[in-house]
Each structure stands twice: as structure tokens, then as C-alpha cells.
Amino acid sequence: MADKRTSAYNPVTGEVLTDLARILGPSGVSSDPEKRTAYSLDDTLPRFEGEYLAEAICFPESTEQVSRVMKYANDNRIPVTPRGAGTGLSGGAVPFRGGIALATERMNNILEIDMANRTLTTEPGVVTAEITKFAKGANLLYAGDPCSGDISFIGGNVAENAGGNKVIKYGATGAHVLGLEAVLPDGSVVTLGGKRRKDVTGYDLIRLIVGSEGTLAVVTKIILNLLPLPKCVTDMLVPMPTIESATNLVSAITTMGGVIPTSVEFMDRKSIQNVEEYASMSIPFSDAGAQLIIQLDGMDRKSLWNDVERVGDICAAEGALEVFVAEDRNARDRVWRIRRLVAEEEWTGSMPLLSKEDIVIPVGGISDFFKLLPEISQRHRAIYNAYGHIGDGNIHLTLFPEAAESGDDLAASAESLRRELYEAVRELGGTLSGEHGVGLKKKYTGIFLSKAHIALIKRVKAAFDPNNILNPGKIVE
Ligand SMILES: Cc1cc2nc3c(=O)[nH]c(=O)nc-3n(C[C@H](O)[C@H](O)[C@H](O)COP(=O)(O)OP(=O)(O)OC[C@H]3O[C@@H](n4cnc5c(N)ncnc54)[C@H](O)[C@@H]3O)c2cc1C
Predict the structure, then answer these.
(1) Residue 384 and residue 399: Cα distance in Å, rounded?
(2) Whose CA is nearest to atom 4 of ligand 1?
(3) Where are the domains of the chain?
(4) Is 262:391 a contact under the CB 8 Å cutoff?
(5) What distance in angstroms lies between residue 407's CA and the mean position of ligand 1's atoms?
(6) Which residue from 341, 340, 146, 312 is spatially nearest to 235, judged by alpha carbons?
(7) CA 268 → CA 237, 243, 250, 369, 461, distances in Å?
């Protein structure tokens, strides 16, 4: 295994392990080889198996312990990579320069729900779905909803500004964050924001830390905004003849229809057909150009039904091949199962992979992108399938070699393909990542961000972390 540590950093020696155990207790630190491997991976495909390895894993249980570990690491120049559940898709939790993997899994308490202020305060290691469930128990909605909600942690969601299925109506994770407690790389603790809904006292550092991929601070407490819980939800499965008609439909619903759906999810023909094969199931209209899942929610059935009818009419006018309306829990689960299986099929698939993308384009440019995509992929002898959060213009694109033979240099093919693809995305006003983060795709940021922008990011990083010990090697470094 290549040693990615550089002379800027010190190794985790036996003495360091003893010092860390003094801070965290003997069960709070591990250098067990199997754990080191497990805590050095996330869910990025292809996996970084064996490429980068943490030298120790720390399991703090409190802000104070995080603070002491960070101070120790900073004083001793040891890199620290914060870690949630390790479901990230950009290598954010991968310890690029070795050192300490800082696992937040023992900071897993929901601390408070405040009904008067409609807030929930939580530690970072709580599974997102637990938060949703807890809020629901109080008749309130936590509207952050990544598809990985059953497995990811809220701290990871904040660090990645995770998106998901409800962004078009409710916004990504950051839209729900009112306050943060965070430990800076030198161990000092800051409290930002709070339960108040307005705050212009000083710079908006919450927005800076949200989505900073664990490079600026370790988030140790989060105050989330909750909303009234919608009483009725309806899902529609809408096969459309072409991708173009599917994308036109998104704009038509929100403008002519006057409705902002909770979700508009999209699966192209190849994604649907892959699921049919993978799950041995038959999906109606599986030869349609694309299928959309449109979810609407509301407080009363009558006005929701008016919206459903209006959206249904617009779907028909835009050429929908059918509009299936799922009202009860079972029917709705069946609709969303297809969407979940699309991601699962890819994850378990055995085909050699060129690239997995998380590009985002203004909704009005998506049709143009899909006109360019076949030419680009053909030029690089690639095939693809696409799905994602089309309501936000966020496309998950997976590219495979048309025919891979042993000895093919897939890395070189992926590199030239990505560069051409990214140029096209940039020309359409899009960018590299909508929700998964930059992480280890940092070499491509220069395609999307100006030199001045990158220089500013580096200065911000240096202001927070002058010794560059917190998640080094990510975003633009
Ligand atoms: C099946 C599947 C579906 C997914 N669907 C979505 C989706 O719909 N939308 C979406 O946005 N993402 C999705 N993801 C990606 C992933 O789940 C999210 O990025 C999620 O937010 C990562 O959370 P995590 O706890 O696993 O974080 P990790 O992977 O452990 O870490 C992610 C980043 O956060 C940093 N970090 C973690 N905790 C902290 C902390 N307390 N303080 C500071 N930094 C921290 C890490 O250093 C790293 O940079 C999906 C992943 C999978 C496997």
C-alpha cells in the first residue's frame, strides 16, 4: 500500500495511541487492522479499497473529547478525517493522508425537541431516519431526506449538505440547519446560530461549514428546523415518451401548474430495464424514454387532490403515456421501490465501471445535456444509465465501457470521458456535484471554479486550519 502520508505530518506511534487512550479511555481508540480498513472506506464506487489507510480510529463520546483529540492532533501534526456512517459517495471520509479516523458513531443522542420553537437538537452520530421518526412522533416534519436516510448520519448529511428526494420543495440539509456546535482544528469550540430564525450578527459561518465535507470543523451538535407534518401524501408514476418530454414536464408543473411537488425523481429507460432484470420484475411501460415519480403533499385531501388532478392534466398535455396515482401506503411503497432498486442494482452490479457522476444543471438545460450525452459517450465507447433528482436538475449518471477487455486502461478512458462531459456540463451552467461532494474528485474543480474562487477557498481553509490537519487532500487541495 502506498504511504500517502507526507513529511508535513507525524505518524501515529504507540506513544500517540497511549495519549489518545488517555483522552478517550481504552475502548475509545483502536488500531486493530480490520477496523482500520473498515473505517478507511466509504460507499464511493469504484471503492478505494486498500488505497488509503487510517492509522488509528478514535471514538469520542462528547464535544469535550472531540476538542481534546483535535487539540492533540493539531499540536502533534497528525491528520484527522471526521467520519459519520461512511455512506458518502465522493471519498470524503477516506483518510487520504492516513492519521486518525474520527468516528462520530458514539455521539448518537437526540438531545431535545422544542415544540415552542419547532426545533430538534441532536448529536452528529444519529441516523437520519431516527430524526425523521422522532419528529414525526411529535407531529412535525424533518424535511431532509437523502435516499440513504436509513443508514447515513445527520452529521454526515450536514457536512455534505445532503440533498435527496425533497429538495425541490423543502431544500437540501442546510436549509434545515438553524444552529451548529463545531470543534475547530485547534480544538476550540464554537456555537453558531441557535433556535432563532433570523441572525445577521457576523458572517454566516453555518452556511460555510454546511457542505464543507469535514474540512473546516467537526460538527458536534446540530439544531434543526422542523415543519408542520403534511397530513396527506400522493405519489404518481408517470412514463414519458422521451427524456426531453420528461424534463419539459418539470418546468410545466411548477409554472403552469402552480405546484411545487415534494419530489420529482427520474429514471431513464436503461435504469428501468436494469431493474427489471435485476429484480426479475415487470415494470409497466419499461420501454418509455423515462419514468418520473412525482410526489405531492398537503394538509387536506381535497386541496391535494385538486393539485393531483392539475398535475395529471399537465402530464397528459406533455405527452405522458400513463399517469399511475398511488395513494395508499402499499401502492406508494411499490412506486418508490423501483427508485430504490435503481440505486441498489448499480451498487451490487459487477460490470466494470468508468465513472459515477452527480452533476447538476439548471433544469432548463437538462434536455440539451441529454442531447449531447449520446455523442459524448459514443466518442469514448461508453454506455450509460441516468437517474436522479430531476426536479433539482441533479443527475446521477453511471458510465460503463461498451466492451471491456482485460488490459484496457479504464482509468485513462474515464479521465478523457469525464473531462469532455464536465466541459459540456459547465457550458450549460452546471457543476461537478449536486449533493455527493467533491471529495477526491478535486482535480476537476478547476473546470468549474475560477482561479480566484479556488484561491479564496484555500484562504478560507487556511484560516480555519492553518496546519492543514482536518481532512487534508480534499476539495481543492
Ligand atoms: C444508497 C445510497 C443513497 C444515497 N443517496 C443520497 C441522496 O439521495 N442524497 C445525498 O445527498 N447523498 C446520498 N448518498 C450519499 C451519502 O449517504 C450522503 O453524502 C450522506 O450525507 C453521508 O453521510 P455519512 O454519515 O455516511 O457520512 P460519511 O460518508 O461518513 O462522511 C461524509 C463526509 O462528511 C464528513 N463528516 C461526517 N461527519 C462529520 C462531522 N460530524 N463533522 C464534520 N464532518 C463530518 C466526512 O469527513 C466526509 O467528508 C447516498 C449514499 C448511498 C450509499
Answers:
(1) 4
(2) 148
(3) 14-106, 110-228, 232-348, 355-437
(4) no
(5) 33
(6) 312
(7) 13, 7, 15, 14, 39
- Whether the CB of 79 sits within 6 Å of ligand 1: no
For 112, other C-beta atoms within 10 Å of its C-beta total 12
Is 457 exposed, middle or buried, given 0-12, 13-18 or 19+ CB atoms closer than 10 A?
middle
C-alpha cell at 61: 463520546
For the domain covering 14-106, report its CATH number.
Answer: 3.30.43.10
Our mutation pick for probing the ligand 1 site, out of 87, 345, 346, 360, counting the most ligand atoms within 8 A of Cβ, is 87
Q: Is 307 in the pocket of ligand 1 (CB under 6 A)?
A: no
Summarize the confidence of residues 411-423 as an average pLDDT: 94
Torsion of CA 334, 338, 339, 344, to 10 degrees: 120
pLDDT above 80: residue 404: no
pLDDT of residue 361: 97
Any idea which of 40-44, 352-356, 370-374, 419-423 has the lowest mean pLDDT?
352-356
- What cell was used for 314? 399537465
Q: pTM to 2 decimals?
A: 0.96
pLDDT of residue 372: 97
CB burial readout 39-72, b (16+ within 10 A) else e: bbbbbbeeebeeebbbbbbbbbbebebbbbbbbb
Q: Give the residue carrying C-alpha cell 435527496.
A: 164
- Span 6-25, pLDDT tens digits: 578 999 999 999 999 999 99
CATH 3.30.470.20 for the 232-348 domain, yes or no = no
Helix (H, G, I), strand (E, B) or coil at 257: coil
- The yes-or-no verdict on residue 319 having pLDDT over 80 is yes
Nearest to 61 by CA among 96, 23, 90, 97: 23
CA of 85 to the centre of ligand 1 (A): 7
Quote the cell numbers at residue 440. 477526491
Quick count: other Cβ atoms within 10 Å of Cβ 172?
Answer: 26
Confirm whether 232-348 and 355-437 share one CATH topology.
yes
Query: How crowded is residue 283: how many other Cβ atoms within 10 Å of its Cβ?
Result: 18
- All residues at 6 or more sequence positions from 262 whose CB lies less than 8 Å from its CB, including other chains: 165, 166, 168, 169, 170, 230, 233, 295, 296, 297
User: What architecture is domain 110-228?
Assistant: 2-Layer Sandwich (3.30)
Q: Which helix (H) or strand (E) holds 152?
A: none
Kindly give the distance from the C-alpha atom of residue 160 to the centroid of ligand 1, in angstroms, as a whole number.
Answer: 6
pLDDT score at 53? 96
CATH code matching the domain that covers 355-437, chosen among 3.30.1360.70, 3.30.70.2740, 3.40.50.300, 2.60.120.560: 3.30.70.2740
